[in-house]
Amino acid sequence: MGAARSVGSKGDSYDNAAAESLNSLYKKELIDYRGDWKNTTDVALATMEWVAWYNTERLHSFCGNIPRAEYEETFHRDPADTAAAA
Fold first, then answer.
1. Per-residue pLDDT of the chain (86 residues; tens, 9 = 90+)
2. Which residues pair with 66 in a beta bridge?
3. Nearest Cα to 22, choosing from 45, 55, 44, 49?
4. What are the domain boundaries of the chain?
């Protein structure tokens, strides 16, 4: 691709605070919380459900305690309103 990494090794998110935070939430809210995984298919299906819930229902403090999808919809509708609310 021609891009050089600035920090960290290929494939890890440890130098990216946002990705690290998301991975931590995923492990805490899904993987560790359930803990009764029978196989990788169970994990994959639960992960898809968690991602959908995370984006459409979970409240996020950075955007006024509304779901990310609602925040994004508002942003695309009127960027000026979103900037004023932040």
1. 444 555 566 666 566 888 888 899 999 999 999 988 999 999 999 999 999 998 888 888 888 888 888 888 888 887 666 555 55
2. 60
3. 55
4. 38-86
